[in-house]
Amino acid sequence: MPISLHSPCPAFDLPVTPGETLGNSALLGAPFVLFLYPRDNTSTCTTEALAFAAALPAFAAQNCRVIGCSADSIASHKKFQARHGFDLPLLSDPDRLLIEPLGAWVLKKLYGRDYMGIQRSTFLFDARGRLQAEWRNIRVKGHVETVLAAL
Predict the structure, then answer these.
(1) CATH number of the domain encompassing residue 75
(2) pLDDT digits (tens, 9 = 90+) for 73-100
(3) Pick from 36, 94, 97, 108: CA 20 to 30 A from residue 14's CA?
(4) Catalytic residue positions?
(5) Which domain holds residue 107?
């Protein structure tokens, strides 16, 4: 069941680049954005990560943190960041401890094949950690600007 508007962010404590852990309690006190993406180093995921990374100063001006999340490992995230030259924090959630409670682990179809995977989704939480807006199955073009406007 997906998270509903004004619900608290699901509790998590996950590895994050560059190699620490990050939990939802550490994010309280300021708004934050979590964007979930399917896989490191794929074209659309790279475009999305680079767009959020480029907008970090605009988010920071509004005292908002931005964190990416996928099921990829920290090692994969570090290679992804090094290859594309950005340092946006990326959570590693291989056990889907955050992905599933956010309702982003869904049945997908590709070339007639059904499989489970991450639905590209973005969540905006307020300073109390309550969901203020969500975007699911998003298209990357113009998405970061939409999130900034909602902030």
Answers:
(1) 3.40.30.10
(2) 999 999 999 999 999 999 999 999 999 9
(3) 108
(4) 45
(5) 30-150
